Amino acid sequence: MESFRQSSGSERQWLQSPARRRALFALGGFLAGSPHVRAQLDPRPLKGHLRVPGLGEMMTAFDFEPVCFANMPLRLYDYMAHGGDSEWTIRRNRQVFEWVDIVAGQRLSADTIDTRTSILGLPVDSPILIAPSSRHGDLHPDAEAGTYRGASAARVPMIVANGPSMPHEEIAAAADGPRWIQFYPNPNMALSRRRLEGFQAAGAQAIVVTVDQQATRFERDLHDRHLGGNPPRTGANAGDDAEEEALLGASGPERYGLPVPGRLWYNWDYLDRIRAYVRVPMLIKGILTAEDARISVDRGFDGVIVSNHGARTLDYVPSTLEVLQEIVAEVSGEVPVLIDSGFRRGSDVFKALALGADAVCLGRAARWGLGAFGDQGVTRVLEIVKSELEEAMVLSGRASLADIDTTAVRTALP
Question: Do residue 76 and residue 16 come from a single domain?
């Protein structure tokens, strides 16, 4: 009997030991986590799924970025994605949309929504344009011609960059939609005139003069270069032709780590001089202060584009949405105010319109479409953003663009 009690006590001790309890708990957890029991579903059931979604499955502009990334070498993707120095401003350009809320209103029927408007006499289906950006050939063999076809199919004007991957004449032949052309200031007046007249001969319906291009050193590119990626930038691959570089030679900014000729020298007098060569509307792009907006208006330019160059210039400048209202107040309707830098969604466009912008330019978002699916990807991105804008108008009770004003949003800007 005594031996039985001893063995029973040992059994109880074994059954109740911490090691035994841990083993039983582990077994219970194993059984509970079994997919056959379905007690705990995998929150990412497709994490091993490698199929790339099709064009029709793209739901937002952001869906195009990973597909575009997968189609490009890292060094070329980073050239497109980078911002100046620490990239603080590139993050700020997106963060600012969190500080502006859309006010819900009386829900409208979708068939009552009207996004049509006119920009400098150009009738458009929506207040959306494609911002100028270079090197579309890095994204797709069709380069800027593909972007232009995609934009025209979506009935969206495209602003072609000063230095595209292909001749402007070839871009013009690719489609028949509205097309503006960007111009970078050049200290050689003969070259400035020839280029501006050439742009207009190629069918530019407006000239957009960029006045904020400064940085040529990007930390992300430098990291890639150390790993065997991007070669150093030169005037030739930055969009300046060989003749310009030969005529200009060395310039002052080269001494300060800015090797590309033609930057950090331009002034208002230069802009006045080249205005004589422009027979179409001329807009000034890169405005971030009410003071510069007022000067642009007083000197007779036809519009301003609030822009920090997609955060590719001086780091730690404000996001464009933060300064939009003061610029709109200063301009007071005398010329159109457009805006770019960081816009990805239709709700972003809605917020800019509510704060006074006449139209919004999309840069990287359109590029993602081209890099992911070619011209059809560009069209689809633009359709998605326009659809999102219409949805925001439906849910906020704003039937037309004229109905979108400051009462449509609440702001908590710093």
Answer: no
Q: pLDDT tens across 126-175, in order?
A: 999 999 999 999 999 999 999 999 999 999 999 999 999 999 999 999 99
Query: CA–CA separation, 175 vs 181, rounded Å?
Result: 15
Which of the following is catalytic: 82, 136, 140, 309?
A: 309
Residue 42, both tokens = 């995998």
pTM score, whole prediction: 0.83
Bridge partners of residue 119, in order along the sequence: 122
Q: How many domains does the chain have?
A: 2
Q: Quick check: 187 and 104 in contact, CB under 8 A?
A: no
Same domain, 178 and 324: yes
Q: Is the backbone of residue 135 left (phi > 0), alpha (psi -120 to 50) or beta?
A: left
Residue 37 in any domain: the answer is yes
Question: Do 83 and 135 sit in the same domain of this protein?
Answer: yes
Tell me, yes or no, whether 25 and 76 share the same domain: no
Active-site residue flag, 309: yes
pLDDT tens string 237-264: 344 444 444 444 444 444 444 545 556 7
Say yes or no: 1 and 128 in one domain: no
Asked if 368 and 335 count as a contact pair (C-beta separation under 8 A), the reply is no
Q: What is the rounded CA–CA span in Å between residue 363 and residue 366? A: 6
Same domain, 22 and 101: no
**Range of the structural domain that residue 5 is part of:** 1-50
Maximum Cα interatomic distance, the chain, rounded to a whole number of Å = 116
